[in-house]
Specification:
Blueprint lengths: L1 H7 L3 H19 L5 H7 L4 H29 L1 H20 L4 H19 L1 H11 L5 H12 L1 H17 L1 H12 L2 H8 L20 H10 L1 H30 L4 H26 L4 H20 L5 H13 L4 H13 L4 H30 L3 H24 L15
């Protein structure tokens, strides 16, 4: 670990800035479900109305992520990330002052969805991958994802405490204040623009085009399978962050238990990200992804097949937290290994489209099923079934065909 820290030290301000930006953007976004009961009651909305905004957020985030990633090559990280932070603050302010469904959709849906393309995992991971040497890249990605999980650990209790004491609008105002810290974080992280992309073997410059890279990715089966299985990650995680507070309220649990559960997820996510970042430096990242999806689905089965208690909920949150964002360093590291760093933000965005389609299904589908049936039984069963299927396919394919350099790119592009 000392050698890893020594290798990261020269670019530590960049990595810390990326981690802080990630922890704030992801933490507050993951805690929006805590506001759902009061927002829907005060604004006379249904749960499906609220989850429609979250679905729009996830869909716009996913569909635009690849395009934003491609713009990094043209404009650099700084203008994109600073614009994203400004949109994030604007979205929270619009949500805090919303008077109906339009304000909720515009703030939590459109503005925050656009903001996440410039401030969340894809950009933070791309910054980190360029800033650190290749031999510690997976571990560094795990460290950044680990710090990124602090957001939920801090945001959830703050949101719940302010909301219970002063109402949801004051709680959202607290989030606006926290979001201001993203401005200096994004500024420091964007110093990575000064670091050139490492040359290919022989000192050659990677001159591959976006079109050639996308074409090669579409024909590279390890990438295609990984991207499709990524759907499950978004579906399961957003279902929990959006609907777990409502599920616990439906079961008669203390509202503060939701915040404790989301905080526990954030705390154990730190350990999970560090573990999977370390493991990805040593073993097949694709196989680790398959095992992670299967493990998540098994944990969901054990929790939702029994009546929840405070103890079982915290244990469930701890297990899910360990498996939460460990996906992030594995996917980012896989993309860098297969395609190199030049187009990594774009290709992470391509894979992320699948993730966000799953997120849309997890948020909106869960809300529609709840409104129709009055419970979440069918919703979690669908999540488990798809999770087990995707995990098994990912694991089997990874062992059958380990990822390598795709055809159609310059030799050595996948460093």
């Amino acid at each position: 670990m000392k050698s890893v820290l020594r290798d990261i030290r020269p670019t530590a301000p960049i990595v810390i800035g990326a981690a802080l930006m990630l922890t704030l953007s992801m933490g507050m976004r993951q805690s929006l479900g805590l506001f759902a009961p009061q927002i829907t009651r005060d604004l006379a909305l249904t749960m499906s109305d609220f989850t429609l905004a979250i679905a729009i957020q996830n869909l716009s985030w996913g569909l635009l992520q690849a395009w934003i990633g491609a713009q990094v090559v043209r404009h650099g990280f700084r203008p994109l990330m600073m614009t994203g932070v400004t949109l994030y603050i604007t979205g929270l302010a619009l949500l805090a002052t919303a008077q109906g469904i339009a304000g909720v959709i515009l703030g939590a849906g459109v503005c925050m969805g656009l903001a996440m393309t410039c401030t969340a995992s894809a950009m933070a991971n791309s910054v980190t991958a360029r800033a650190v040497p290749a031999h510690v890249r997976s571990i560094a990605l795990g460290m950044v994802s680990s710090v990124g999980s602090l957001g939920a650990l801090l945001s959830a209790p703050i949101a719940q405490s302010l909301t219970q004491a002063f109402g949801w609008r004051i709680g959202m105002g607290g989030f606006v204040t926290m979001a201001l810290l993203m401005l200096p974080a994004a500024w420091f992280a964007s110093r990575v623009d000064q670091i050139p992309i490492p040359p290919l073997p022989g000192g050659r410059v990677d001159s591959s085009t976006a079109r050639a890279t996308l074409k090669a990715a579409a024909k590279h089966l390890p990438f295609v399978v990984m991207a499709c299985a990524y759907f499950v990650c978004g579906m399961q995680l957003v279902f929990l962050t959006t609907h777990l507070p409502s599920y616990l309220a439906l079961c008669g649990m203390d509202p503060m238990l939701s915040a404790k559960a989301l905080g526990t997820i954030g705390g154990f996510n730190m350990m999970g990200c560090l573990f999977f970042g370390w493991a990805g430096q040593r073993w097949n990242k694709q196989a680790l992804l398959g095992g992670l999806y299967i493990s998540r689905s098994i944990v969901l089965i054990f929790y939702f097949t029994d009546v929840p208690t405070p103890q079982s909920t915290i244990l469930f949150a701890a297990c899910m937290g360990f498996l939460w964002l460990g996906v992030s360093p594995l996917v980012a590291g896989s993309v860098a290994e297969m395609f190199g760093l030049r187009w990594q933000p774009m290709l992470q965005g391509v894979a992320f489209v699948s993730h966000q389609l799953g997120s849309t299904l997890g948020a909106l589908g869960g809300g529609l099923l709840y409104d129709a049936l009055g419970n979440y039984s069918l919703a979690w069963k669908i999540g488990v079934s798809l999770g087990l299927t995707a995990g098994i396919v990912q694991l089997v394919f990874a062992l059958w065909r380990p990822p390598g350099r795709p055809a159609g790119l310059p030799s050595g592009a996948a460093a």
